[in-house]
Each structure stands twice: as C-alpha cells, then as structure tokens.
Request: fold
Amino acid sequence: MIKTACGLDCYDACSIVVEEGEKFKIKGDSSHPAGNGALCSHLNKHIFDMPRIEKPTIDGREVEFQEAMDAVCEAFKAESSLLWRGSGNFGVMQEVTNLFMEKLGGSLTRGSLCDGAGDAGISLGRGVNRTLPLEQVAKADTIVVWGRNLTVTNAHMMPFIEGKKLVVIDPVCTAIAKKADLHLQIQPRTDYYVAIMLARFIFMEDSEDVVWMEEFASEYEDFYDYTREHRIKAILAYIGVTLGDMGEMLEYLRDQKVVFLVGNGVQKYSIGSYTLHAIDSLAATLGLFGKEGCGVHYLSNSKLGFDNPFAVKCDTVPKAATPFSEFETVLVQGGNPAASMPDSNRVEKELEGVKNLIYFGLYENETSKMAKIVIPAKNFFEKEDVRLSYGHQYIEKMNQVLDSDIGISEYDFTKILFDTFGFDGLKSEKEYIAFWLEQCEKEGEQYCSPVYQAFPYAKGFGADEEDEFEFIEEYDDDFVNTKRFRKHRKESKNKPKDETYWLLSPKSGKSLNTQFIRSNKVQLHPQSGYSEGEKVKVVSPYGEYVFIVKLNEDIRAGCVMITSNTIGVNRLTPSILSQEGENACYQEVKVRLEKMI
Ligand SMILES: Nc1nc2c(c(=O)[nH]1)N[C@H]1C(S)=C(S)[C@@H](COP(=O)(O)OP(=O)(O)OC[C@H]3O[C@@H](n4cnc5c(=O)[nH]c(N)nc54)[C@H](O)[C@@H]3O)O[C@H]1N2
Ligand SMILES: Nc1nc2c(c(=O)[nH]1)N[C@H]1C(S)=C(S)[C@@H](COP(=O)(O)OP(=O)(O)OC[C@H]3O[C@@H](n4cnc5c(=O)[nH]c(N)nc54)[C@H](O)[C@@H]3O)O[C@H]1N2
Ligand code: SF4
Ligand SMILES: [Mo]
Reply:
C-alpha cells in the first residue's frame, strides 16, 4: 500500500492511501490520527476535473521545454529579479527555489497574505506559536470556534469536538454556528473588544486563575487595569451583543476546560495582531495554557524547531503589497497574485510593468494570462515532498504516486537554473527530503513535529520556555471612521445614504483559494433590498466590480460576503499591511452597493 499526503493549503494535511489496481484511485487514510478516513471534495473531485497547463508557452506560443527553460535562464540575467511564491502547494520542497534566488542575488517576499497578523499577536504574548495538539482539543469541555468556518475549511476537526459544549463567534451564522449552544453574531472587526470585555468580566467575578498566573503571567493586575480602561456599555453596543449574551458566554468559560479554535477570519485587519494577543490574554486570565483539554488553537508555525535548508539571506519586499514593477524579472510560483493579492487594480498595473513575468504553476489563471513565460509544474501526486501542518502536529512524507509527462518539479526547475548559471551547492532532492524527515519526532511509524509537546507552554513561554506570558497592554486602532473613507463618501457621485457594508471574504467549499471552482456571487442579507440573481455593482474606495446577488439570511445585517474564489473580489480590497506581521488586510474595507439600471 502506497501512501502520500494532500499538498493543498489546508489545516487538515490529510494522509492519503492509493488503492491497488489499474486505475489511479485514492482514499483517506483511516489509520491517520488527524483524518477520519475521508478526503474532501477537492481531492475526491475538483483536482481531477481541473484542466492542467500541459505545454510551456512564450508570449502565448507553445514551445518545447528546453526553449522555455532557456528563456527563463535568459530572463534571470536581468538587473533585478524577484521570486513571489504562493501557497498552492504546501510541501516544503516548494522553497528549494530560494536557493537559486540567494545565489543570483535576487529578492524574495516577507510577511503574508494569510495568517501573519495573528501569528505576530501570538508571538507577542507567547514568544513562539506552538501547535495545540488535537488530543487536547478532544479533552475540552467547551469549544469556542472563533472566526473559523470549521465545516468548510477544517472539516477533519469535527470528530474532535463531537459532544462538547459549543460556542461560535462569527458575523455569519455558519453551519457550525447552527449547531452551537451559543452563537455570538458579532459585528466584524470587534473581536479584540469581545476578548477584552470577557477578560474584564472574568476578573470582576473573581473567576480568573490566580494560581496559574502567579507562576506564568504575573503582570495580571496590570492587565485587569488595562481592561478597565474599556467602557462596557459603549463597547458592547459596538460589538452588537448584550450584557446578557456576555453573561451566557461566561457560563461556558468559567471553571472548565476550554479550547479556542481561532481562525483566519478574526485577523484580516490592520489590527489583526491585537485581536490574537487579546484572545490569548483572555485565555491566560482563565489559565488555559499548558493544561489538559485547554488552549488556543490557531494556524501554528509548522516549521518551528526545524533547521530549514531553504532559509536564505535575500533582500525582501512585503508580500501583500509587492512592488512588482521594480523588478525586471518576476517568477510567480504556486500562486495567483493577480487574483489572490489585495487591490487587484494595483497588482495588475504592477505586473504589467514587469518585463519578464514568469508563471510556474498548474492551472491557467489571472496571473498565467499576464505572463510572458509559462512553465507547467508537476502536481503533488507527481513528485516527492514532505508535508508539515499548521493545524496539527503530524507530518507526512509525500510520495510520488503518479507518473506524468506534464510539467517539471520545483527541484528539477532549480537544478536546471543552478547548472545553467554554473552555481554550486545544490544537494540532491533525496538529501533534502531526508534532512527534513530526520528532524521529525517519530511516534511508531508516524512523523511528528520536532517541537511537539502534549501540553504546550506547560513549562513556560518563549523558545526556551523560560519566559512569562506577556499580556496585551496597548491597542492602536486607526480605521473606524477613517478620514479616507469619509472623504471618499463625500466625493462619491452616487452618494450612499448610510448603506455601507462590511466586506466579509472567507473561503469557499468549492475552491482552495483561487484553485478549482470560481464564483461570481456576492451574498447579501435579504434585508438589503436586492433580489436573487440580480446584478449589483459593489464599490469600495479601492475599486469596483459587478457580481450576481445571492441572498443569504445567515449573514449579519450590515455585511456582505464575497468568498475568496470569486472573480474580482480583490478589486475591492486594500493593499495596506497589518500593524504587526506585514499581513494583508482583506476585510479592512467597507463597500456600498449600486443598483444596475
Ligand atoms: N474549502 C476550503 N478550505 C480551505 C481554504 C479554501 O480556500 N477552501 N483555504 C485554506 C486557507 S489558505 C486558510 S488560511 C484557511 C482559513 O480558514 P478559516 O480560518 O476558516 O478562515 P476563513 O474562511 O477566511 O474565515 C473564517 C470565518 O471567519 C468569519 N469572520 C469574518 N470576519 C470576522 C470577524 O471580524 N470576526 C469573527 N469572529 N469572524 C469573522 C467568517 O464569516 C468565516 O466564517 O482555510 C484553509 N482551508
Ligand atoms: N479576498 C480574499 N483574498 C484572499 C483570501 C481571502 O480569504 N479573501 N485568502 C488569502 C489567503 S489566506 C491565502 S493563503 C492566499 C492564497 O493565494 P495564492 O497563494 O496566490 O494561492 P492560489 O490563488 O490558490 O493559487 C495557487 C496556484 O498554485 C498553483 N500550484 C498548485 N500546486 C502547485 C505546485 O505543486 N507547484 C507549482 N509551481 N504551482 C502549483 C496552481 O496553479 C494555483 O493556481 O489568498 C489570499 N487571498
Ligand atoms: S484539502 Fe484539506 S481536507 Fe481536503 S484532502 Fe486536502 S488536507 Fe484534507
Ligand atoms: Mo491561507
């Protein structure tokens, strides 16, 4: 029996069994501790339905591989080069191309489109962002799903939360919210305040864990004072909850084993780091670190504890606001920045200013269409790799389980560049893969993170576990009623009354970001006055686009939802960076709707 693992960017990092027989058939690995023997529709269907790029092209003309790679090598002789890597494949071997950029003196990106703001907030409090093991999730009394669309983006977590008390904090009444004992359908971008208010109430009623804090978070009295600087009545009104809701919430937190499953949704804002830091500070108030059945589970740092052979010293530019046109040659690998980055209007202009845009990927998309040179890649079934996970502690060897004439692996691509430029130092693919796997812990046959701890932070915080937890002590909000937005509203011809909506842009079950099935819909609350199937123009300070209306009464009034696989969604989003973590801020934007006549 051959196994491999799913390379898609997803919490679950499923292990896959390739069934014996003539035809290539796969199924979930029922022996894997994180899966339950099932795969999702991306692997059961979408990935096999998706037409691949089969031939390399130069200026749209199909060419032989040799000619295309000669053109790539020629392009890298330019004055300045940038590698922009997306997360289309999560295998560690994706990063091997860094080694070429270092030798060449090219640039890479820093920061993130994804979880960087939250990660920065966690690092401020805990020093390092460790994984909360799934067995602790399974031992909790209460699960708080906080801005994570569990059934869609992290379905393999479901068996671990079965039968527990369930609270969901989300502006949308998601499928998991419908199952919850309590759903706080809050106003977007108010999670920081939710956490601070809850911490304040915990202190007020003396439910805080003084014994734990005395040892691990001794500045707690300052934190209590800090929470008291926040006015209760005004803030609860701003969040959109009542004192009664908060009282009910406390019932689920007080004197219990609690796990917060915090998702990407809470931190797609300039203030995203403060939100995670505040949630962690609430968790510390309750003494939820280092204990059985307790903790905060966010997208963890999967490379923590590894000596990364692809870590290089290069100049960097911020990923979420990349100034592409400053480079003569840009290699886009495993991503679709023309659609996935915020502020597509800016990105498009920037990409048009690149002399040699090289796209290295599997599928045609907005970025491949703009590229001068297109190089087809091998997919994760067709090459060797190692799969780490940001959702759990388990690690898989990804084996080549399919032969294909299509495409080239990242390793082979890098090897050609090294050979052509006469660079030395590239080791064999096998050596790199062995180097990653050697560093893993092993539980029987199962690879595990080298820094796996059953009870993370039980000894302390920081990389050496010698520090205390640092509570949040400042919050710098620069958005609510920003001058920029008010100015825009004044200048706008079709003056909105007051119908400005928060843009929610979560993931879709039909796609993995922009891979697979795309959408053209904007989801509106029926109260918005629009009808199903109608066209509507959505306008933000950054751009506008026409979508088809889909009514959805599960969305909080005052919000619209456009999922990340929707064509045109990022014409509406800003290319600002989060205050910490240099992350994209997809939801730091309000939009208005214009009727199409
Ligand atoms: N099917 C599928 N699975 C995926 C992906 C995919 O594209 N498709 N993408 C993968 C990737 S790259 C990532 S990063 C993960 C992310 O997966 P998740 O962590 O689930 O993140 P999102 O889907 O972006 O948003 C989660 C929830 O946050 C809510 N939300 C929005 N704004 C707020 C807010 O201000 N406060 C609160 N409390 N909630 C809010 C949304 O309504 C949504 O229900 O999923 C991975 N898994
Ligand atoms: N509006 C909005 N925008 C978002 C988000 C959102 O929630 N809302 N989410 C953001 C997040 S969390 C993320 S992580 C980003 C993701 O954004 P990107 O990292 O740009 O990922 P995708 O858009 O999914 O594009 C992935 C591409 O990788 C290629 N690919 C797949 N496998 C391989 C491989 O093995 N080798 C190579 N060379 N190429 C491969 C495929 O051709 C595919 O088109 O999007 C961000 N953009
Ligand atoms: S996309 Fe996620 S849930 Fe689906 S098979 Fe891959 S790892 Fe598992
Ligand atoms: Mo992501």
Q: What stands out?
A: DSSP finds 20 helices and 28 strands in the chain. Confidence is low (pLDDT under 50) at residues 481-498. The chain has three domains: 2-111+316-441, 116-297, 482-595. The first strand starts at residue 2 and ends at 5.
